[in-house]
Amino acid sequence: MAYANDLTLTQSHDPGQTSAVPVQLNRNLRRIIAWGNIWQVRFVPHKTQLLHVTRSSVPLSLDFNGRTMALQDEVEVLGGHL
């Protein structure tokens, strides 16, 4: 049996809300991990990708299951590159 297990999390915001974005995204990532723990779904942090598309110079630091996510120039989603 095979499962499609790709998940894409996006966040858009107004320019004045830039500082709230990491807080909101990290909160949502913790919720995803908690959901996975309840339903016995294990996420693989080293396969997790972060693409940050922004005009802001504020760096984005996200934590996924105890691991800081590294920024990527492109990400692969269901076999396609973005």
From TrEMBL:
Domain of life: Eukaryota
Ranges where the record places region Disordered: 1-20
Biased composition (Polar residues): 7-20
Protein name: Reverse transcriptase domain-containing protein
Organism in which the protein naturally occurs: Portunus trituberculatus
Lineage summary: Eukaryota, Metazoa, Ecdysozoa, Arthropoda, Crustacea
